Amino acid sequence: MYQETYRAVETALKDATGAADVLLGDGGEHADLASTIAFALAKTEKKSPVVIAGGEITAAITDTLAAAGITVSTTGPYINFIFGPAYVAGVVKVAGEPGYGRLAAVPGRVCIEHTSANPNGPLHVGHIRNSVIGDTLSRVFRKAGYDIDVQYYLNDMGRQIAIVSWGFDYLDIPPQNEGEKDDHYVARVYVAANRALTADPPAIKEEIDRRMGLIEQGDTEIVEKFRRAVSLCAEGIKVTLNRLNTPHDRFVWESGFVQDGSMVEILDRVEALPESSHDDILAVDLTAFGFEKEYVLRRSDGTSVYAARDLAYHVWKGGEHFDRLINVLGADHKLIGAQLQATMELLGEKVPEIVFFEFVSLPEGSMSTRAGKFISADELIDEVTKKAFEEVTTRRPELPEEERRAIAASVAIGAVRYDIVRVSQEKSTVFDWRQALDFERQSAPYIQYSHARACSILAKAGEFTPAYEFTTASEIALAKHIGLFPVVLQTVVEELRPHHLAIYARDLADLFNTFYHTDPVLKAEAGGVRGCPVNPCPGGTEYPERSARNPWYRCNQKHVDP
């Protein structure tokens, strides 16, 4: 309903002013919408903006908008619009329908690629901001009417995998125990192989280089060695992604674009570009796009680099498969991501949109898989789940242990995800489980508890006839905020900034709790929001104020305990 009401105000302003842009935006604390168009008109009409706003525009649109239940007023040169009772009632009615917030279907398909961490170890805390941002965007896009495909691009040809494969062949490192996750096992092999490479670089480096050449040639034995290591790690990563509730529709293997010849085709097209250089290596001169460094795609020994396969992958995505491409990448990929975009433009291909994010860390500091200095996402989830279980046990000791553990698991994942996504992606952040699990703070547990409280009210309410007459400031504010949900979804889609949704959820919880405390619905007097949950009512009486205008009542006995 918000969009329709917004358009009604916008149309009235355009008709009254003739302006293409009526400078309509959020009204802040004073109104639902406000316009500053009077300032712009004052420059051309040589009049005071106060006169234009109050004496001309408001006079011209008041009656029209009043018929739609919208009150128009001015504060100096600002024109304010307040949505009336019909709007508030309509918002709550619509919000009660299944699938509220879902926007109309949008033609075309969208590919969102996120996480795509190298398969040489488990996801660590630095990776999961990628996962959470990408998954939140995916969920919002689906809700906003888009047909999307969520992908994880598996780098199964990189030097890291060559090192891991060498480690499996030459280092005797068995799994620690039957319960060790495969990705953690791969990480131990990778760390040990890197140490060996540092201690005796010449011989091992030659073998690593040999494997890099053979994998691109499609050598059967080397392909199998690489695939074994990557498959092990990928299965472990999938378990972590499932714990985070960040699923992917498909895992795309980098090597596939070498094996089917598409990478060679793309490199042939790149070679034909006037911006390409052929001095020993194949690179693209992107100085026209403001880059000093060339975009290298093939080494002097004839082997391709990661960027070449990545280019082929994006050409495949942007061909007949998808109409919009969105990548989620860490800030350390800004250069190579921008070079990819520029080269795709030179090739006349669909250019991907890239959501860059700064890093999330722990109070302990930064992490490195190569050096073996990292805290895995699994360890973080386990620790937060443990702390959540302790908190749930303190609050609800009477619940069975199985139920407390289920609640703790839900609270923990919510805490991790929310604390990561609530910060806008261009800001770095430090994850502190103490703050993330604070039930009193504006955190995930706070929002989850608010939702549980709302569900409890409905459960205790029993059968009732809905009413849509709202009079108190807290219930009107809550209803109007509910009406903004579709707008927030559209904003996230347009700006690719999922923290807007996190902020919306936090504000919604705040408004709901304010409403709950100022208007305790289960105790509401005549004109409140419900009747007695007990049928038949033990008290057997009703308030006499019940009428056609005000159909709500509550039992006047004190047997209802909300």
Describe the structure using short key phrases:
Rossmann fold, 5-stranded parallel sheet, 4-stranded antiparallel sheet, 14 strands, 11% strand, disordered C terminus
Description:
- This protein is an alpha/beta fold and 562 residues long.
- Among the domains are: 2-83, Arginyl tRNA synthetase N-terminal domain (Gyrase A, domain 2, 2-Layer Sandwich), CATH 3.30.1360; 109-361, 3-Layer(aba) Sandwich (Rossmann fold), CATH 3.40.50.620.
- Helices cover 52% and strands 11% of the residues.
- It contains 20 helices and 14 strands.
- The chain has helices at residues 2-17, 37-45, 49-66, 85-95, 125-143, 159-170, 182-199, 201-217, 220-243, 256-259, 262-271, 306-321, 334-346, 377-395, 401-421, 433-436, 444-461, 473-482, 485-495, 499-518, and strands spanning 24-26, 33-35, 70-75, 78-83, 109-113, 147-154, 250-253, 276-277, 282-284, 295-298, 324-330, 353-357, 360-361, 429-430.
- The chain has a five-stranded parallel sheet, with helices on both faces. Strands 1-2-4-3 form a four-stranded antiparallel sheet.
- A hairpin with a 4-residue loop joins strand 8 (276-277) and strand 9 (282-284).
- Helix 18 runs antiparallel to helix 20 (499-518) and helix 19 runs antiparallel to helix 20 (499-518).
- The longest helix has 24 residues, at 220-243.
- It is flat, with a radius of gyration of 30 Å.
- Mean pLDDT is 86; it is low at 526-562.
